[in-house]
Amino acid sequence: MLRRIIKAGRSCDQLRCMDRVLSKKRKRSVDPGGARRFLCLQMNAIGAAVMAQPAWAAIGKAFPDATIDLACSPHIAPLFENDPALHRIHRLRKSRYRPWLFEDGSSVRETLRGARYDVIVDFSALPLTANLCAQEEMPFSVGFQRRMEGWRGGLDLGRAYDGTTPYSEEVHCRALMLHLANLICNLDDPEPAPKIYADDASLRKASSVLESLGLREGSFITIHPGAKWSPKIWPAGHWQTLIRKLRDDMDASLFLLGGVQDRPIMDEILHEGSMAGVPRYVSDDIMLSAALIRQSALCLCHDSAPMHMAAALGVKSVALFGPVLPSRSAPHQSEGCRALHREMFCSPCTLYYAGERCRRGMNFCMHALGPDEVFRAVGDALAFP
Question: Is the dihedral of CA 179, 184, 186, 187 positive or negative?
């Protein structure tokens, strides 16, 4: 109850703060055709950043003489350091207790003002970045019309920008990003695929890790059993059954990959005696994880960052969906992704973004995906050229 009260209080503070800032915003009319310096904002999770990559790459293609910078969270930045479309990456942190504000807002505004950007493209659809774009000293900006609700009404984040496009929870995230880029330029390719460019040092380190695990490049399955939100996680018992089938019936080489936050689910999976000998590797080095996935024959994961990374690296994947529909975030089948999902009466989860547990007490949508079904999908994916 106390956590709910605190969360409600923060929501009210956020809306009051945003309303004050947006009430001062004055719309401007600027032709982006003459722009030479672009800033792309993407302060969401890793998957959202990967889905935004085709959009900023399209802007770079349309403005070959322009400079395009990216502002994102520090842990995401390494994924895009080798992106040829980007010139510079700003690593920004949001406030721990007021997530609609940056950790050092005045310093952030000073840095961005000093870079003399002509246009800001906000892919985040968050109060955090809308609040920044609405500041008087910020340049012409484009963003999403997204309504935020609170106890005392709501507000439209679109008021923060000079140009907007509608935001929808029913449209694929990648398509939304491209719609926003289309306000700046005409896209040559209506559905460009995302790309992550792994650096040589990470690839060499990945090869060393694989050698220590007794695995050969291109001959193993990477299993990533973690996810940012617990309702997205497949039961440990299902993972154990699937791993046994992959080893016994398919004679597959595999290993478990995850970050430090994924240790609990990895420990739970490997706790059973029959899992002895299954290798695992834990690392928060995001580029090393990307390099390990790139050298896999297939990535088996949830609706999470590794799914997007696999698609951007040209690696096949089987992704397990639950609270969110595949139509919202799954990579295209042409990119090697096979998305598995069992729709429930509550799909998509209406409380998914409000908490870290299923309102029904157990995430039935994830339990409904059986190990046999996933095993068949893995076999089909590996057999498909």
Answer: negative
